[in-house]
Automatic annotation (TrEMBL):
Keywords: Membrane, Transmembrane, Transmembrane helix. Coiled coil: none annotated. InterPro entries: CbtA_put. It comes from the Bacteria. This is Cobalt transporter. Pfam families: CbtA. The chain crosses the membrane at residues 75-97, 109-127, 147-167, 179-198, 242-262.
Length: 288
């Protein structure tokens, strides 16, 4: 049974990844292209400032993969594989929860686990470290940003597991409704404490040294030695639109995993009904 559920989780994840890619390709990709164009223009303006100041300008090497390949095959394959990975993780979590969360139907449990995955794997980390287009960010902070994001994600997952266990422990004392409210409140408080303890990306040492102390590392206007703006800051509309589409893509991914997996899991978990015994023909011989 476990193997059947995990295989179906991988299939549901692949479907979710494919749907999320189609959405992202149509809506988010133009925002990524706009971000790349901004980065190219800003780099050219920075190079001009460096040349004017007598500084050496490093030559940029060619891209290994063209922009067309990156925007289509690269992102598509990446999102499908990511969907499969999330589907496998979802199926393992679902299998562990079976029989341990009360009398919940197979379909309902699938939607609850998918909702928990979306909340802990993306929404909560997103609130602390919202998504940026790939071209935006200080290259010297990539490692620090990755560690902080993974730390926030791991904390969100572990705290959600703790909240579920707390709710189960309180259920016998407070009832299902009050136990759920208490566990949810405890989760919000604990997540808020973790968010307050972790630094913002703008507070990283490399960003403070280069740009000063800010809440994020979204590029600010580029200025010359006299303080005049020679290139604008990153467009706020592009950033906000990209973040909204990124969040919606994750909603599509986890929603598809839950909705596709739910009926398949119910078929695996519901034993086939026994065939009805053949009825004996009791009619009088005269009526046959």
């Amino acid at each position: 049974m476990e193997r059947a559920l995990i295989l179906r989780g991988a299939l549901a994840g692949a479907v979710g990844g494919l749907l999320a890619f189609v959405f992202a390709r149509i809506f988010a990709e133009p925002q990524i292209s706009a971000a790349i164009n901004y980065e190219s223009g800003r780099d050219a303006a920075q190079d001009a400032l460096d040349k004017a100041a007598g500084q050496a300008v490093p030559a940029m090497g060619p891209d290994i993969f063209s922009r067309t390949v990156q925007a289509n095959v690269g992102i598509g394959v990446g999102m499908v594989f990511f969907g499969v990975a999330m589907g496998l993780l979802f199926a393992v979590t679902y299998t562990i929860c079976l029989g341990r969360v009360g009398g919940v139907r197979a379909r309902t449990l699938a939607l609850l686990v998918a909702g928990g995955g979306l909340l802990s794997m993306y929404v909560v980390p997103f609130l602390k470290y919202p998504a940026n287009p790939p071209a935006i960010g200080h290259e010297d902070t990539i490692r620090s940003r990755s560690v902080l994001y993974l730390t926030m994600t791991l904390a969100a997952v572990l705290l959600l597991i703790g909240a579920v266990l707390l709710g189960r422990w309180l259920q016998a004392r407070l009832g299902t409704w009050n136990a759920a409210l208490a566990a949810g409140a405890a989760y919000v408080v604990a997540v808020g404490i973790v968010m307050a303890l972790l630094p913002s990306f703008g507070e990283l040492a490399a960003n403070v040294h280069t740009f000063g102390r800010h809440a994020t590392e979204t590029p600010l206007p580029l200025k010359d030695a006299q303080g005049r703006i020679v290139y604008p800051g990153f467009p706020a509309d592009t950033l906000a639109t990209f973040r909204i589409y990124s969040l919606l893509a994750q909603v599509i991914l986890w929603g598809a995993i839950g909705l596709v997996f739910a009926p398949m899991a119910e078929r695996v978990l519901t034993p086939p009904s026994a065939p009805e015994p053949a009825r004996r023909d009791t009619a009088p011989a005269s009526l046959r």
